Amino acid sequence: MQRRDLIKTLAASASTVFIGSTGFTKQEANEVSSQLKGNINHSVCQWCYPDLSLEELCVIAKEFGLIGIDLIGPEGWDTLKKYGLESTMCNGAEISLTEGFNDPKYHPLLVDNYTKLIKQVAQAGFTNLICFSGNKRGMDDETGLENCVSGLQKILPLAEKLGVMIQMELFNSKINHPDYMCDNTRWGIELCKRLDSPNFKLLYDIYHMQISEGDIIRTITDDHQYFGHYHTAGVPGRNEIDETQELFYPAIIKAIVDTGYKGVVAQEFIPKNDKPLESLKKSILICDV
Fold first, then answer.
1. Is 165 part of a structural domain of the chain?
2. How many domains does the chain have?
């Protein structure tokens, strides 16, 4: 047997064993992928499934028809590629969620980190790399914008050259990330306009923006050109996106599709269900319009 064929056989065997151990049969898992309409590129965030290794989640993601997994750095890329998956939102260049581009004292380290990782992302064949504004710590919005522009302009020429999209995530500062600067779409869009780069966009987190400002569908419809990636979760609680929460995701995802979006929608909810993969399965199908 050729080495390539052996690897495929072993991977298929491991997939069958693992699927069974989670309570899914391979046939049940494939029922998800067989129903997908092809209008949405689906992904999932690993951190929401702490009881699963990256390899285990890769098996499920592949069987469910996902194209990749979000928020995976270079240490996990070989595992993703083993299963034909992408790192749909790369990370690893940031300092932290609170120490970001709005503070010039972090620029030297951030520029060094991002310069290295942009090259790695491009070499790996991936596209998206996350970044953060950081916390205000008494800073006014205008100063924060100026500082972010100054720092990000140092890395965007390389990102443009290598085809890497730098994406700043929108967080709510009301519940989850107190004092975070990029906590509303208006501020984020102003940053996009000032940078005026095709390789800088916002990661629009639907959960966070529902808490911060609501008006989700209108915002997506009017401002979609500034959004390069979407995250999901239920409000309140950041749990399942089913009938237990206040957002109606089929309408939201339809609005995204109607804009002509060809990027990724990643599930980032924390399952309450004692069968978390059932919740993931249901959520993928809810978001497949």
1. yes
2. 1
